[in-house]
Amino acid sequence: RDWSSDVCSSDLITDQAVALWARILHANPASRLVLKYRGLVDPGAADGMRGRFAGHGIAPARLDLLGGSTYREVLETYRRIDLALDTFPYSGTMTTLEALIMGVPVLTCPGVRIVSRTIAAHMKAAGLGDLVAATPDGLVEIAAPLAGTPGVCCRNTRSCSFTSPMTRCWERHWLFRRCRAHFVFTRFSSTPRAGERGSGPG
Hints:
alpha/beta; 5 strands; globular; single chain
C-alpha cells in the first residue's frame, strides 16, 4: 500500500513529520511512502531525505521520491496512492485538498494553532472526522487498520463521501465569484451618464 505526502516545499516536512511517518511505516511493513516536490530532482536533496528516514530505521527502498512535473502529472500521481498523510505540525493546504478531490483519503493530526488545523476542518466538513486523529499516537492507530485491510479505502466506497462535498464546495465558490462579477459589472454599466436616464430601477 502506498502512502503519499505531496508537498510544494521541503520546509513542511519537519523532523516531527518524518518521525511520525516512520512510525506508520514501521507499523505497516508492506507499505511505501511517496514524497513529491520539485526539490527532489536534486540528488543531494533526495539523499538527504533518505538519510532523515534512515535515522528512524526506514530503508531507502521504501521511499519513492519524485520531483516536479506538470499539473496533470501531479494529479495522475494520486492514482497510485491509497492513503495520503497530511504534513505535521504545519497542515497542508492546496496539495492536500487535491488528494481529497482525487478520491484519496487523508490522515491528519491537527494541533492547537490554525496552521495545523486547516485540513482537519475540511475533513470534518466532508464527514470524514474518523480520519482526524487527536494525537500522533492516535494517527498511527488509525493508519494501521486502513493499511492492513484490503478494500477499506476503495474509491468506489469512500471517495464519494469527500469528493462530492469538495466538488460542491468548489462549485459554490465558482458560482459566487461569477455572480459577484456580474453584479459589479451590471451595477457600473447601469450608472446613468450625464443627461441620460439610468437603466436600473427607478
